[in-house]
Amino acid sequence: MKWLFIIALTTAPTVVSANCVPPFIPVFDCRIMTADQRVEICATPPDEHGVSGTYSYNFATGLAISELYFETQDNRFSTKYYRADHEGVNTMGLGLVRGDHVYSVHLTGMDGRYVSAAQLHVYDSIADFDSERGEAEALRLYCEPGSVRVNWDFIRP
To answer: CA-CA to 12 of 20 to 30 Å: which in 4, 6, 40, 48?
Structure first.
């Protein structure tokens, strides 16, 4: 019976979940649509003012060691694709600054309820991320829709 349980665990479909190292907690994770890659964003628990001090970014292929991992205290929000007249469905972005670059996720969906699409963007500068001009990113990757998990409390300005 024990072996049947182990076999069931190892063959059952798995859901992507961020591999955050304590004290970090999951903010966002997904699998990339066109490759065996994943991205995970984690944050330290919010303080008494509801603010997380540090975020981590992890980009990896399959189950391999991270291709890019960093921690930062510099995070930004984007509403460049936000449109107030879309009956509650909208796009918000969270960006993490590393050097001159901003690594971000833009989520389209209904705040606090569901995500209909998620994209990863890499910007060559903070000015590009902060601008209201769309499609200013140097790289754009699309998340596999069924793999997106988000903690909405972190995706709000």
So the answer is: 40
Q: Count other Cβ atoms within 10 Å, centred on residue 3.
A: 7
Residue 59 half-sphere exposure toward CB, CA atoms < 13 A: 14
Q: Which residue has the higher pLDDT, 87 or 59?
A: 59
In the structure, how many helices (H) and strands (E) does the chain have? Answer: 2, 10
97 vs 85, which has greater pLDDT?
97
CA distance 94 to 77: 5
Q: Is the pLDDT confidence value at 8 over 80?
A: no
pLDDT of residue 1: 42
Cα→Cα distances 22→18, 25, 26, 32, Å: 12, 7, 10, 25
The full length of the chain comes to 157
Q: How far apart are CA 21 and CA 44, in angstroms?
A: 10
